[in-house]
């Protein structure tokens, strides 16, 4: 039985007082309970190259017509600090981590963005959302929307068709798995949207979501991800 969110938040707050959070990178005591990494680990994270996401998306023929721009904040390495962060964010009942990291993402260099209509997180299917209790992309989107002073539109894009985990699928299988998995609301038409997700590997999920927004009439879609997986 899943506890109400206020009880979960209260219990987590009590535990944070009794057992102060530790940095998931080095184990040092965290300066802020909402951030999973200490200041030193944050500064040492490897930044994703400016063209890194674009180069990855070039392997998907649909990407140029679906996305106007795409960027990642950091590089994701298996076994590294970001994997521990992602695990805590997705499975450790720590949505506050997502909001804090989203604010960091939102303070990155976004000067070239068009005037945004809002931030759109990649949605989860209802079954996965009930299992997890929250959407980690929506948590990141909350922080980004706050930092950029634009609305969070987590009601704009839906995932009515359940999909398999992408982890063990090939590039072709990943695209087949998520293609046509999303549905957009009519309000997407004419908007300039910032699509947000946590980790990008091939980009199939993000491109499928962006394609859905464009087919609904979106004027512009830009992708922002927390980290780009190293391949």
Summary tags:
single chain; 231 residues; alpha/beta; Rossmann fold; two-stranded antiparallel sheet; 10 helices; 40% helix
What does this structure look like?
- The strands form 2 sheets. A 4-stranded parallel β-sheet has the order 1-6-5-2, sandwiched between helices. Strands 3-4 form a two-stranded antiparallel sheet.
- The N and C termini lie far apart (39 Å).
- It is globular.
- The protein is built from 10 helices and 6 strands.
- The protein has helices at 5-18, 39-44, 52-57, 63-66, 81-91, 95-106, 126-132, 136-148, 171-178, 204-215; strands spanning 69-76, 118-121, 157-158, 183-184, 192-200, 220-229.
- With 231 residues, it is of the alpha/beta class.
- It has one domain: Rossmann fold (3-Layer(aba) Sandwich), CATH 3.40.50.
- Mean pLDDT is 85; it is low at 9-19.
- List the domain count as a whole number: 1
Give the strand order of the largest sheet, numbering strands 1, 2, ... along the chain.
Answer: 1-6-5-2
Number of helices: 10
**Low confidence ranges:** 9-19
* Secondary-structure element pattern, one letter each: HHHHEHHEHHEHEEHE
Strand content: 15-25%
Distance between the termini: 39 Å
The shape is globular
Judged by helices, strands and strand pairing, the structural class is alpha/beta
CATH architecture label: 3-Layer(aba) Sandwich
CATH topology: Rossmann fold
Radius of gyration, taken over Cα atoms and rounded to an integer in Å: 17 Å
Top CATH class:
Alpha Beta
Question: How many strand elements?
Answer: 6
Tell me the major beta sheet. Answer: 4 strands, parallel
In round numbers, the mean pLDDT is 85
Residues in helices, as a percent range: 40-55%
